[in-house]
Fold:
Amino acid sequence: MLGLKLFHVAESGVTEVVPYLADVEADVQGLVEAHMETLLGVRFLASEYGTGPVHGGRIDSLGLDENGSPVIVEYKRGIDSGVINQGLFYLSWLMDHQAEFEHLVRDRLGVTAAAQVLWSGPRLICVAGDFTRYDVHAVREHRRSIDLVRYRLFGSDLFGLETVASVSGRSPVTRRVRRQAAGPGGGQSVALVELAHAVDESLLGLGDGVNSVQRKTYRAYQRLRNFACVCPPQRAKLLVYLKVDPKQIDLVPGFTRDVTGLGHHGTGDLEVQLRTLRDVERAQELFRMSYAAA
Structure:
C-alpha cells in the first residue's frame, strides 16, 4: 500500500489523496472492531479482554473466523515490533484457556458456534501502521498462523488494509492432509485424485501467503479471509465455493450455480462444479476473481 497512490478524479483535474496514520491506536481498534467481519472475515467477540491477575494482560480483540478458528487481533498505531511478541504471548494464554474461550463464543454466538471451534488453527492478526523486514522474517520462523496487516487512512472516509505477510503454522499437517486426500480408503478414481491435486495447486498458486485450513466437511483456502472452499470429491465431480457475486458473471448450467441463501459447506455464493482437468482451466478466471475479492 505504501507504493499505491490514490487520486480523486474531477473535471478540474486529479488530486492525490494523501494517506495518513490514525491519531491514536484506539481509533484503529474501534474502526476494525465495529466492522471486523467485513474487514477481516472475523466475527467479533470481545474487546480489551482481561487475561486474569496471574497473566496480567488485556487482549485487544477476540474473534472467530469463517472456519471456526480462534483469532486474536492486536493493534499498533505505527511501527512497533513488540506487537508480534505481545500477540504470541496472548495466543499461548488462549491455548491454555480453551474452555473459557468456548464459553465466550457460546455467550456471543451460540452453542453451535462454540461446538465447532477449530483449535488446530488459532490465529494472530497484527494490524499496524507498518512492519519492518525483520517482522516479516520473524513470523515465518514461528509455528503459529500469523497475519501482518498494514492500514492507512485516506481523506475523511477511506480506510485501506494490505496484507504484508500471511503465514500458516500448520504446513506439516497440510502436507499430510494432501497426501491423505490423494489416496482415501474409499477408493476414488485416478481422475478425481488428479482433479483434486490440480485444484489444490491452482488455488495455492494464486499468490504468496495462501494458506489452507482443513475442516471436516471442506478445505478453505485463505489469505487473511477465505476465497475458496473445496468439498471432498463426490462420485464424479468436485464442488468449489467461491467469493464471487453470481450476478456479475454468466452462469453456465452444470458448471456454475448461484447458491446465495442456500445451505452448503464452506463459504461463498458461487458454486463451481469440476469434473475434468479442462473444467479446472475454465475456472481459473473465477479463482482469480475470488482471490481478488476476498
Observations:
- The chain has a mean pLDDT of 89.
- Residues 79 and 130 are 5 Å apart (CA to CA).
- The radius of gyration is 20 Å.
